[in-house]
Amino acid sequence: MKTLIVEVMDTKRIGELVTVGRIFGDTPDILALGTGDVPGTYTKAYFTDTAVGANLIDPLVDLIREGDYQLVLLSATTLGTEIAGPLGVRLGAPVLSEVIGASADMTVTRPIYGGKAVATFTISQAPAILTVRRKYFEPADLAGTTTPVPLTGTGTTITLISEEAAKSEGIPLEDAEVIVSGGRGMGSGENFTLLREMAAILNAAVGASRGAVDEGWAAPTLQIGQTGNIVAPSVYLAVGISGASQHLAGIANAKCVVAVNKDEDANIFKRARFGIVEDYKKVVPALIQALKEEQ
Prior knowledge:
GO terms for molecular function: electron transfer activity; flavin adenine dinucleotide binding. With about 300 residues, the protein is an alpha/beta fold. The protein folds into two domains: about 5-150, HUPs (Rossmann fold, 3-Layer(aba) Sandwich); about 180-295, TPP-binding domain (Rossmann fold), CATH 3.40.50. About 25% of the residues lie in helices and about 25% in strands. It has helices at about 10-25, 55-65, 80-90, 190-200, 210-215, 245-250, 270, 280-295; strands at about 5-10, 30-35, 40, 45-50, 70-75, 95-100, 100-105, 105-110, 115-120, 130, 145, 150, 180, 205-210, 235-240, 255-260, 275. The strands form four sheets. The chain has a seven-stranded parallel sheet, sandwiched between helices. Strand 1 (about 5-10), helix 1 (about 10-25) and strand 2 form a beta-alpha-beta unit. Helix 4 packs parallel to helix 8 (about 280-295).
C-alpha cells in the first residue's frame, strides 16, 4: 500500500508513523513540516515550512492525487487533526482518528466512548486518512537522512499574524516515563508544590486533571485527558483525582497507575494497580521523605 506520512520534523514522531506505515507495506514517503534533512531513508521526501495547517490542504491534495497515495498517516496532534479533517473532505476520503492499533490485514483499532471500549475498523477505501495516537507504536529506527524537495503548489492563504510558544518547565508530559498528577482533590494551587517536590525527586513530569485546570490551579498545558495531553508513562501517580472517564482516556496507555484518594469509591481505583485510600496530605509528605532517604 502506497503510504504518505505528514509530520513535523521530529524523529520520534516520524519514527512512530514509519512503524505504522511498515505494517501496511514498504517504508512510506514523507511530507516533513519544517526545514533540513529528514531523519530516515525514503524513496520520496518533501518538505514545507508552512506553519498553518489550512494552507497545506490544496497542495497536499494535489500531492496525494498525483502520487496515487492510498493511505495518509498523521500523528493525532492538534496539527494532525487540523489537517486530517479538511483533507478527508477534499479527497472524499474516510478519516479514522486516534488509531492505537494496526495490522497488515488493513484493520485498525481506536478507542470509543471516552476510552471505555475499543472498536476495530477495516480500511476498504483508498485513499484513507489515519491520525495515530502518540506512544502506542514503538518508533522505527531511522537510519540515515534524506534531503527533501519542496512541496509545490499554493493553497488557501491564511496568514499567521503572530504566535507565542507556551512556556513549559521540566520534562514534557508526552515524553515522561513518570508523571505525578493532581486533581481537584488537591484543594488549592499552592498544594501542587508538594507534587512538584516529589516530581523533582522522581525526575518526573507534573500533570493535572481538567478539574484542577478549571480551578486555575495548574496551567492548561498540563491538563491530561481526552481534551488535553494523551500520555503513556511507565508510572502515573494520580493524587486527588477522581477518575472521570475523559481523564482515564488520557492515561489509557499508562503502564502502572498509582492512586491516592481519600474517597474509597473514587473511580480512579478501578484503573489503578496500586491504591491508597487516605488524605494525600498524609501520604505525599511521607512518600517524599521515603524517597529522600533512598537517594
